[in-house]
Write a structure and sequence with these properties.
With 345 residues, the protein is of the alpha+beta class. Helices cover 38% and strands 19% of the residues. The protein folds into 2 domains: 83 residues, no CATH class; 230 residues, BirA Bifunctional Protein, domain 2, CATH 3.30.930.10. It binds 3,4-dihydroxyphenylalanine (DAH). 3,4-dihydroxyphenylalanine binds next to strand 8 and strand 9.
Length: 345
Amino acid sequence: MDLDWREKLKLLEQEIGSFEMSKLEDVERFRIKYLGSKNVLKDYFALMVQIPATERKEFGAVINSLKDLANELFTKSKDQFEESKRKSEPVADLSLPGLENGQGSRHPISIVMDRIVEIFSKIGFEVAEEREIEDDWHNFTALNTPDDHPARDMQDTFYLKDFAQHLLRTHTSSVQARYMTQNKPPFRILAPGRVYRNETVSARSHCQFHQVEGLYVDKGVSMADLKQTLLFFAKEMFGEDVKIRLRPSYFPFTEPSAEMDIYWGLKDETDHRITKGTGWLEILGCGMVDPAVLENCGIDPKVYSGFAFGMGIERQAMLLYKIPDIRYYFENDLRFLKQFKPIMS
Ligand code: DAH
């Protein structure tokens, strides 16, 4: 080398450092020249043999540092170009139509339950919700349901496998026991919620369904209060002209007990089918709270009396919306679910 190699490499360093890269093509030229397969640095390496043996190590190190420099400058410029390209691209096409956000709708069961709560809240009933996993005492024993009562049968009740004496509540009446043991009368409560029974699923019955329970305990509550309350409910729910009747019945936790029917009529064939040709349709069970139940829950039956009722929701929603099969409620098919509008009061 005619010039001192150190001088030459210094010039090369300046050349690399001052390489103008104002366009993307310049960056590519830079890459080919200093980093490509036939780059200038390789030519310099080839000159190694002409360097005195004692200086070769230093020579090699300087060439390598120039390679690092070229690499660094190349990466920096390339990144800068890519960054500015990214920035200049539109983030989104603002002229595209917006994405529609489906509004959703209430489940028919929720609509009917809300309506029932609304009706009873007009006459002072407050919502008291409770657990779905209950113990045997609140679901059965407190409610006067003896150990050998068929409702306790393994066939009807889902018991929890590893949790002795616990079960999925079979009715919302369990809330009566919960509430009465924790509160002092007078009270008027409404307990809407889900219940479970080990039943074969068909068009008319399901292993899960919904009930609304009512309970009123005070001094001097009578059967007349119960009947008047239920008549008020039926009129609000099914119209001013609705007819109701109370039929004597039996429930372990009420005495006397009754079932309430509403007159649905016999307008068409479906009416005949669902009312078994009578025009009357059973809506709920009810009665005067059995004194033994009050006592079990720590309320003195000599001072207080009360009435209770419990109604199924699925059946009422089937009537109101003409839903032919109970299984539709639990399949979550959007085509079914989006059809329901709230019931206006
Ligand atoms: N728990 C009853 C059932 O699931 C319904 C019922 C009947 C509730 C009479 C009551 C009542 O509160 O008084 O079949």
